[in-house]
């Protein structure tokens, strides 16, 4: 079982709409679920895993509903972002307990295999209380893998990991995707997602905002209008030269702060032309800073796209 279909799914909590009429299909391989905090990623992952009921719509795994379907748990592993861990247990005891919950015939062996997969053997017999965030993450991952699921859902799995741990987890997820499993992980960092996922689904404010490979998603983000604040040796002369250039759509001369506010329509063109124009006219550039580079504004643009 490997294909998850989300069909017109919404989920609300009181009057907060966490997921708003989302439709998407996730197949084998590694897919990234990208979106800023509060976008509804965790809520969607929990519904996919059968841990939360949709308010409306359906989530199915190869045609079988994930909600109120016990059999589904045998095929899905969920690594939640926040989870109460049993600090008084060792990592191994925690993974074995999960294997037993799944009713696996040889829980000890299954746990050992999962612990080896996440390379935690060296600390498996230490109490979870002594683990770093990255180590906890790997033990959670081992518990989610203990029953060898065909679908793996991970909520912000790279949070709190150092670069080496991150690389190791990326390799592991790549391997699982190559084996034909369906791996879906959420993140709010585009660079993280594009390093790992060929396919990206973007969520913003509960809505499904974009879908495609990382080149398409990056292009959407780069091609949007950009605003810059520029301070130069002669703002008025620079403004008059730049407004004649195709890369800009509007320029405001801010006399109070001594800067230009520039609306660029062609991101690549503008960043290439600005220094050329300044050089041609002998104008010194003292400051060039993007004013709306926050991830929030990038996503807001995508929603409107
Ligand atoms: N159990 C809940 N009760 C009330 N509101 C909730 C609940 N779970 C989520 N929400 C709200 O739903 C919205 C989406 O939250 P969700 O955690 O799914 O987003 P997210 O994209 O995973 O963000 P984050 O990365 O910050 O966890 C938020 O506004 C959140 O406050």
Automatic annotation (TrEMBL):
GO terms for molecular function: ATP binding; ATP hydrolysis activity. The keyword Lipid metabolism does not apply. It holds the Pfam family ABC_tran. SUPFAM superfamilies: P-loop containing nucleoside triphosphate hydrolases. InterPro entries: AAA+_ATPase (IPR003593), ABC_transporter-like_ATP-bd (IPR003439), ABC_transporter-like_CS (IPR017871), P-loop_NTPase (IPR027417). Belongs to the ABC transporter superfamily. This is ABC-2 type transport system ATP-binding protein.
């Amino acid at each position: 079982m490997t294909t998850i279909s989300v069909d017109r799914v919404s989920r609300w909590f009181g009057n907060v709409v966490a997921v708003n009429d989302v439709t998407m299909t996730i197949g084998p391989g590694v897919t990234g679920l990208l979106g800023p905090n509060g976008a509804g990623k965790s809520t969607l992952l929990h519904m996919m895993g059968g841990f939360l009921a949709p308010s409306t719509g359906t989530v199915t795994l190869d045609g079988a509903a994930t909600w109120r379907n016990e059999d589904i748990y045998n095929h899905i592993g969920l690594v939640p972002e926040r989870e109460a861990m049993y600090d008084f247990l060792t990592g191994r005891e925690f993974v074995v307990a999960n294997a037993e919950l799944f009713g696996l015939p040889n829980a000890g062996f299954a746990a050992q295999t999962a612990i080896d997969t996440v390379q935690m053997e060296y600390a498996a017999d230490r109490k979870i209380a002594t683990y770093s965030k990255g180590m906890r993450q790997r033990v959670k991952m081992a518990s989610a893998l203990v029953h060898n699921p065909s679908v793996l859902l991970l909520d912000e799995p790279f949070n709190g990991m150092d670069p080496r741990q991150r690389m190791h987890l990326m390799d592991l997820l790549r391997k699982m995707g190559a084996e034909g499993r369906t791996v879906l992980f959420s993140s709010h960092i585009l660079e993280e997602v594009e390093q790992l996922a060929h396919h990206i689904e973007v969520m913003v404010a509960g809505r499904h905002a974009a879908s495609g490979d990382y080149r398409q998603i990056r292009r959407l983000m780069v091609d949007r209008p950009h605003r810059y604040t520029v301070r130069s040796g002669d703002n008025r002369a620079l403004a008059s030269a730049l407004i004649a250039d195709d890369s800009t759509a509007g320029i405001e001369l801010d006399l109070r702060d001594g800067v230009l506010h520039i609306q660029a329509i062609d991101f690549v063109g503008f960043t290439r032309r600005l220094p050329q124009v300044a050089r041609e006219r002998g104008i010194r550039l003292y400051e060039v800073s993007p004013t709306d580079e926050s991830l929030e504004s990038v996503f807001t643009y995508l929603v409107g796209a």
